[in-house]
Amino acid sequence: MKARGRPPRRPGRLAALLPAGAGTAARTPFVLLIVVLLGSGLITLLLLNSALNQGSFELSRLEKKTDDLTDEQQALQQEVDGYSAPDALEKRARKLGMVPGGNPAFLMPDGTVRGKPSVATGEETALSAPAEPSRPGLTPFADPSATPSPAAPAAPGTSARPTPPGRAAADAPAPTTHGR
């Protein structure tokens, strides 16, 4: 048994290495080092946690802003869709004095006019009627190079295009060359 009040007995070999009373003084720097390392680790964890929380708040703020901007973009897209609807376009065009066009006429590559052009009157016209060929024997979607053109060759410096109906030859625009 151990006696009270007496320091514990050390074996002989260890007693020579450590002087008596030196055990507590030698532990103090080590304990301070461990306390400083643990304290600095806790402070580092606290700072890291604060930085992560701040980033989380920033992310939440940006997500809310993204949601708000997405809602605004959808509202604007609905507004644009309302303006580009056919009935809305027709109302705005009529307010500007525009009227529906008449039956269309098409200019073929060989210079012939397909269909009967008409003046736009403001009355509703049926656009589903097919355009009539202006020359007999010309079939729709015919190859113009296969059908010989009865027109005489144009004189140098004049237009080879036919004059549209209702327009005098003097009123026809002069031919232009693009890109030269």
Set out the fold topology:
Blueprint: H1 12-17, H2 23-83, H3 86-95, E1 106-107, E2 113-114
Antiparallel strand pairs: 1-2
Region (Disordered): 97-180
InterPro entries: FtsL/DivIC
Protein name: Septum formation initiator
Fold and architecture overview:
Pfam families: DivIC. It comes from Streptomyces natalensis ATCC 27448. The chain crosses the membrane at residues 32-52. Residues 144-180 have a biased composition (Low complexity). Residues 97-180 are annotated as: Disordered. With 180 residues, the protein is an all-alpha fold. It has a domain at 36-94. Helices cover 43% and strands 2% of the residues. It has three helices and two strands, in the order H-H-H-E-E. It has helices spanning 12-17, 23-83, 86-95, and strands spanning 106-107, 113-114. A two-stranded antiparallel ribbon has the order 1-2. A hairpin with a 5-residue loop joins strand 1 and strand 2 (113-114). The N and C termini lie far apart (120 Å). The model is unreliable at 126-131, 138-144, 146-160 and 166-170 (pLDDT under 50).
Beta percentage is under 5%
Question: What is the overall pLDDT average?
Answer: 73
Low-pLDDT residue intervals, each spanning 5 or more residues:
126-131, 138-144, 146-160, 166-170
Q: Biggest sheet, strands in spatial order?
A: 1-2
Structural class: mainly alpha
Q: Percentage of helical residues?
A: 40-55%
Q: Number of DSSP helices?
A: 3
Globular, elongated, flat, extended or rod-shaped: what is the shape?
A: rod-shaped
In whole angstroms, the N-to-C terminal distance is 120 Å
